[in-house]
Specification:
Layout (H helix, E strand, L loop, with lengths): L4 H30 L17 H4 L5 H31 L3 H12 L6 H12 L4 H7 L11 H25 L3 H9 L4 H29 L3 H6 L7 H11 L3 H38 L1
Length: 285
């Protein structure tokens, strides 16, 4: 007896559904329950039902402010650097040069982000770039342990995640559309704005989503390049769970971060979908 298509589909999706529930939904449920509890006398979690942890979120406002400021700025900086690079790789570089440049983009992933962050600590420290700038008269310039240092680390660490989705979108672009636009008399800038950019928006949206979501939970780069002066919510969570051992309050901070990300990503996806729909309507007119 043949299995019905809907049952067959459910059977195929069952392993992924169980994995999704066990690795994502269940931990979030645990964190949600912990967020209403209290800190035990020796730390950890004591069952309770109180909203005090959420009412005290303002105590970590600096961490939320840094995250909600530097994460979007870092995402935008990655986009502004990645798009021209992806454009050159997909539409201008020769096959041999394209392969070499793609390898160079991938190479940083061959080394731990910890080692790369230590390298930036040296470069931005007193014996690195500031020492070189002092030779030309720019003395007492502090780069390390600043928002700028964290932003540099963010762009360096997450740039490949922005480059590859955009590159894939541009590489799949039908080159005949560009030729048709040029044949119809459109200048290069107009061709880019009306043909290339709209068709590459799926890659832009994917890259921005990847970078932004990961930056919202970033811990290592602010810890190393911020020097304890520029910290994200991820750093606050590490302090609350491992140092203060206030699991209840840390869970409330984590749930607030999840809620902010959920609202932000939903709004971004709706705006992207609406923009794409508007472009489709214009193209059909």
């Amino acid at each position: 007896m043949a299995m019905r298509p809907q049952y067959r589909t459910a059977l195929f999706l069952l392993p992924a559904g169980v994995w999704f529930f066990a690795m994502l939904v269940l931990p979030l449920v645990v964190v949600f329950v912990f967020s209403f509890g209290e800190r035990g006398p020796a730390g950890g979690y004591v069952p309770a039902f109180t909203f005090d942890n959420f009412l005290n979120l303002g105590a970590r406002w600096t961490a939320f402010k840094n995250t909600l400021t530097l994460a979007p700025i870092g995402t935008l900086a990655c986009l502004l650097i990645a798009y021209p690079l992806a454009y050159f790789l997909a539409l201008r570089a020769s096959p041999k040069l394209r392969t070499m440049l793609l390898i160079l983009v991938i190479v940083p992933f061959w080394t731990s982000i910890l080692i790369r962050s230590y390298a930036w600590i040296f470069l931005l420290g007193g014996r690195g770039i500031p020492a070189l700038l002092a030779l030309v008269g720019l003395e007492d310039l502090r780069l390390i342990n600043t928002p700028f240092a964290v932003l540099v680390g963010i762009v360096y660490g997450y740039l490949p995640l922005m480059v590859f989705p955009i590159y894939v979108s541009l590489e799949r672009l039908d080159k005949r559309l560009l030729e048709a636009s040029a044949d119809l008399g459109a200048p290069p800038l107009r061709t880019f704005l009306t043909v290339t950019l709209p068709l590459s928006m799926p890659g832009v949206a994917t890259g921005c989503m990847l970078v932004f979501i990961l930056l919202m939970g970033e811990f290592l780069i602010p810890a190393m390049l911020g020097g304890g002066k520029v910290f994200f919510v991820g750093n606050a969570l590490v302090d609350l769970f491992l140092q203060s051992r206030n699991w209840a309050y840390g869970s409330a901070v984590a749930m607030a971060l999840v809620l902010i990300m959920l609202v932000t990503v939903t709004a971004y996806m709706r705006a992207t979908r609406r923009w794409a729909g508007g472009r489709d309507e214009v193209s059909l007119m």
